[in-house]
Structures are given as C-alpha cells and as structure tokens.
Write a structure and sequence with these properties.
By secondary structure, the protein is of the alpha/beta class. It has 2 domains: 100-469, no CATH class; 477-585, Transcription Regulator spoIIAA. It is 55% helix and 9% strand. The strands form 4 sheets. A 5-stranded mixed beta sheet has the order 6-7-8-9-10. Helix 21 (533-548) links the parallel strand 8 and strand 9. Helix 3 (100-128) packs antiparallel against helix 13 (370-378), helix 3 (100-128) packs across helix 14 and helix 7 runs parallel beside helix 18 (438-453). The longest helix is centred in the middle third of the chain and has 33 residues, at 306-338. The chain is elongated. InterPro entries: Membrane-Transporter-like, SLC26A/SulP_dom, STAS_dom, STAS_dom_sf. This is Sulfate permease family.
C-alpha cells in the first residue's frame, strides 16, 4: 500500500530538495517545412516567402494520443524526442557533395559571383576611405577562408558595406593601419563568439526581423545599382538603362545550356553587344583600377599601447557584431534555400579566422554578403567549389586578368543584381502585413526602414527589442487567479499564467489581502511559473501585506525551477512554502 509521509513545514524560506515531477515544457512546433529536394529547386524569393509563412502558424490542434507540439516521432513505436532540449547548434547537415556532373556548374557559378563582387568591393573601399586593392584582397581572403572552413558552403563572404560604414570614421581619424588592427581584433572577437557558441542566440531574432532584413537589403542593393549611373548624360543614361534591361531580360527569359548560370550568359552577352556596337558605356575600369599583386603578410604599424587598444577596441567590437549578425542571418536564409541546417558556431569561427587573416594581410575584412550568396545559390553554387572559385577568380583579376574585368559594363552587373533583388524581396509581405499581429507588422516595417537608412546591426537590435516588448506586454495580460475554498477551510487562489516583471502589478491586485476575509490563504502555482526577481519581490510584498492583516499565506505546487529561484533570492523574501507530500511504498 501507499503511505503518505508529509514533510515538516518549511520555516521561513527553507525549501526541501525532495524530487517531484516537473511540468513538461512545451515548445511551439515548427511549421511543416518543404522537403530538401523541394527547397533545392526553390528560388531565394520562395525561401523568404516560406519563412514569412512560418510566422503565421495555424491554430494548434492535437488529437488524443498524438504527440505534443515540440516533439518529433521517429516511428510509430518510438519515444517522442523533445526538441526543446536538443542541441540545435551542434547538429548540422553535411554539405552537398561535389560530383563530376555538377563540378562545371559550381565553377561557373563562382565565376559569375566574382564578376558581381568586384564592383561592389570597389564601391565599399570608397566608403571606408581605403585603396581599391585593399577591398579586393579582402574579398579574396574572406571568400577563400570561409569557403574552405565555413559551415554553409553556399554563403559568399567579402568586403561588405555594413562593416565598411563602421570602419570609415576610424580610417578618417587615425589612418588605414588602425583599420588593419581593428579588423584583426574583430576577428579574434568572432573566434571567441564561435568558441563559446554564442551564434545560437541568432535564434532569438524573430521572423518579422528576418523578413525586414531581407527586404531592407533588397532596397539597399537596388539603390546601389542606380547610384552607379549618377552623373551620366541623357544619352549615356539611356544606353545604360537599355543595357540593364537587356541583361535582366536575358536572365529571366533566355534559358542557357544545362549547367551554365544564366547571369554569366547575360553578362557575357552584354559585354559582347557593347563591343560589337562600339558603345561608349561605363565599365568596371571607369570605377577603379583592378590591377595589383597577391596579398602578403603585413603587421599593422600601430603603437602597441593601451591607448591604441582603447581606440580600436570599440570599433572592433562593432565590426564583429555587425559582421556576425549579417553572416548568421544570411546563413539562415541560405539554409532555407538549399534545405540544410548548418552550425552557427562553425560559421562564427570561419568569419573570425578570415578577418584575422585580413588584418595581417593588409585587407579591410568583411562578412557574409547576402546578395552574392543568393546569386551563388541561384546560379547553382551549393558546394565549396563555387566559393573557392569565386575567391581565386578575384585573385586572378587582380594579378593578370584586370584587362578583362575592367571591360565589363557596369550596366550588365547592375542588371544582374536587380534581378536578384526581384527574387529575394518578399513582395507578398505587402498583402500579408494585414493578416499578422500588429506588433509583427510594425517590427517588419521598422527593420526594413532602419536597414535602409542606418545599418543592419541597429535594425536587428531595434526589431528584437520591439518584439520582446510586444511579447512581454502580451504575456503580462495572461495572468489570472481563480478563487475557491478547500476542504480545510482555506481560501485557495489558483494562479494561471507567467509571473514576471510585466505581470507583477496585476498579480498584486489579484491577491490583494484587503479583499479577503479568511485568515488562511493558499497561493497555488500549479499553472503559474515565477520567472524573475521582480516576481519574487511581488510575492514577498503581497505576503507581507497579508501578514500585516493577520493572514497566513502558504505557497504550493511550485515547479523545481521556481523553487530554485526562491532559494537564490532567499535574502529577499520571507514566505512559507507547502511541499507536495512524498509517497513511499510501505514494507509488508
């Protein structure tokens, strides 16, 4: 038989450590995703729309006998696995294998991306205020290192505008040597982030932030293409517009031979058309000279003092943060397109190694580039071969192929990037914005606008903060209390919902001692979880007011985590806790 052995009442705040069954943690199930094969055939725009659809899950329904949300069943006889306890950051899919059949496609994809990277890298060097060769070396080093050791082979890294904007004031005040020191220190910071697996916190970025990030970068990419035609006369402007439209039409409507990326065919066709007609149009060579040498070891010429560290450390931290945010968001987007799940900490480490290498090779560093990454994936680049090819092609342009690359029309590259913008921008967000919660719609619009007018790090931070505030406000409305009298004549308040800083005031009003005539009160937390020190303080304040009126308050059905929090705040509270009885099997 079973014998009930009640534990002696806890005095003050002492809690016994008796084991008890904790309530199961329920995690919202992810929306059903497309199969890897289906994702591999999708466009970047489809991936964005798929991500947006995940922000609108249908109301959860569960029949009797089916697993709870947040579990995965491997077979009908298998035990459900709780996804909330899985190490998401450690589990990752293998990269697609390279075969002889798709090797040519991977190489051609890398060449296509390299052509698009050169003018953008040159433009970002002007933003940072450094020599063009510094940006081209950064594109080659970042691309090569991350392609070799990065988690997601489809991601293309290089000299990026997000980091160039952060580095520009440092170069203006102290010179380019301080830039190299800051980039190396930023790489070391990213290595530490990867070592401590901080990349997993990118999961805290909500889907509206992701959609706003993609839409904002689409606008930024489009704006950058139009800015390349600034200052052109009317006839030259019409020529550039016509060549841009010709390139876009080639990409969209002309089907190239199997294994050949359509953007590469379009760029080559546009270049041949310009040469055949003898048109005088703006080319890569008109932007800047590409010729140079291979990167070599360069120790930053800065004083090794604490004053130097004080100058470069804030910039390095900003570069590391901006670079990792853009990289990890790009990694998530590419994962959706190719149907894989890659480790964030590995990507952080690869970015750190690449930036350290840039700092000691006289390059400006950078991060993942969403435009080039999507272009790579759209052109068929899914393996490390495409990334390595892109980096080696840039080095080839710098050393002995400058004459070729400098003849490529800017209009052809602008048309390629504008086609990419049409694919990655989530046009359905305009119609869906009325169907999602108002807070999510505001976050989406905010992140889009801030990305366009400031930078990605500020945009994502603002979006996460606003989403968190919206969630806290909604959660604060979920707390309630049901009042009843138990068999011992005590008034029991069954608390439901989360108790935290947002709901502490409501909790105090629900259990106000002035509204209770019974001198014996029980607060039942079977349906409530105590989250923070503000909640603990609210418990103590409410209990103190009850004691002032001669009422005894007992807490019961606290979960182990809530009890642990009360122990941790033991000096702040003085409440009585009623432990659940322990049942033991009596001897015959």
């Amino acid at each position: 038989m079973l014998a009930s052995t009640p534990r002696a009442p806890a005095r003050g705040f002492a809690l016994a450590s008796a084991p008890r069954v904790s309530r199961a943690r329920v995690r919202a199930a992810a929306a059903p995703s497309a199969s890897p094969a289906a994702k591999r055939s999708s466009s970047p725009g489809d991936a964005v729309r798929f991500a947006f659809a995940r922000a609108l899950p249908p109301p959860p329904t569960r029949r009797a006998g089916t697993p709870r949300a947040g579990t995965r069943v491997l077979s009908s006889a298998a035990t459900p696995i709780n996804l909330a306890d899985s190490a998401d950051d450690d589990a990752f899919d293998d990269a697609p294998s390279t075969t002889s059949a798709n090797l040519a496609a991977q190489i051609l994809s890398g060449v296509t991306v390299s052509l698009a990277m050169v003018p953008e890298s040159l433009a970002f060097t002007f933003v940072a205020g450094v020599s063009p060769i510094v940006g081209l070396h950064a594109a080659a080093i970042m691309g090569l290192v991350t392609a070799l050791i990065g988690a997601q082979p489809g991601v293309i890294s290089g000299a990026a505008g997000a980091t160039a904007v952060v580095l520009a004031p440092l170069v203006a005040r102290h010179g380019v040597e301080y830039l190299f020191a800051a980039v190396a220190l930023a790489g070391a910071t990213q290595l530490l982030c990867g070592w401590f697996r901080l990349g997993k916190f990118i999961r805290l970025v909500p889907q509206p932030c992701m959609i706003g990030f993609v839409n904002g970068l689409g606008i930024v990419i489009a704006r950058a293409q139009f800015s390349t035609f600034a200052g052109l006369e009317s006839w030259a402007l019409w020529q550039a517009a016509a060549l841009t439209a010709f390139t876009m039409a080639m990409i969209k409507f002309v089907k190239p031979p199997k294994g050949v990326p359509s953007p590469l065919v379009a760029i080559a066709s546009c270049a041949l058309l310009v040469r055949g007609l003898g048109l005088d149009v703006k080319t890569v060579g008109d932007v800047a000279r590409v010729a140079g040498t291979l990167p070599s070891f360069h120790l930053p010429s800065v004083p090794m003092t604490f004053e130097t560290l004080a100058i470069v450390a804030p910039v390095a931290c900003s570069v590391a943060a901006v670079g990792l945010i853009e990289t990890l968001l790009t990694q998530q987007l590419v994962d959706d397109v190719v149907g894989t799940r890659t480790a964030t900490h590995t990507e952080c480490i690869s970015q750190g190694v690449a930036n350290v290498a840039c700092g000691f090779a006289g390059a400006m560093g950078g991060c993942a580039m969403i435009g080039q990454s999507m272009l790579n994936v759209e052109s068929g680049g899914r393996t490390r071969v495409s990334g390595v090819t892109c980096a080696l092609a840039i080095l080839a342009y710098v050393t002995f192929g400058s004459g070729f690359i400098e003849r490529v029309p800017i209009a052809a590259l602008a048309g390629t990037m504008l086609c990419l913008v049409l694919d990655i921008f989530d046009w359905t967000s305009f119609s869906r914005v009325t169907k999602i919660p108002r807070t999510d719609a505001i976050v989406l619009a905010l992140v889009t606008c801030v990305t366009v007018f400031t930078n990605l790090a500020v945009a994502v931070f603002a979006g996460v903060v606003l989403s968190a505030l919206g969630y806290a406000y909604k959660a604060s409305k979920q707390i309630s209390a049901t009042k009843r009298v138990d068999e011992r004549g005590r008034t029991v308040y069954a608390i439901e919902g989360p108790l935290f800083f947002g709901s502490a005031t409501t909790f105090a009003r629900l259990v106000d001692a002035r509204e209770e005539s019974n001198n014996k009160i029980v607060w039942d937390f079977a349906g409530c979880k105590v989250w923070d020190s503000t909640a603990v303080s609210a418990l103590d304040d409410a209990a103190a007011k009850c004691r002032e009126r001669g009422k005894a308050v007992v807490l019961r059905h606290l979960s182990p985590s809530c009890a642990a929090l009360l122990r941790q705040c033991g000096d702040l509270v003085e409440v009585n806790v009623e432990e659940d009885p322990i049942y033991a099997v009596a001897a015959d």
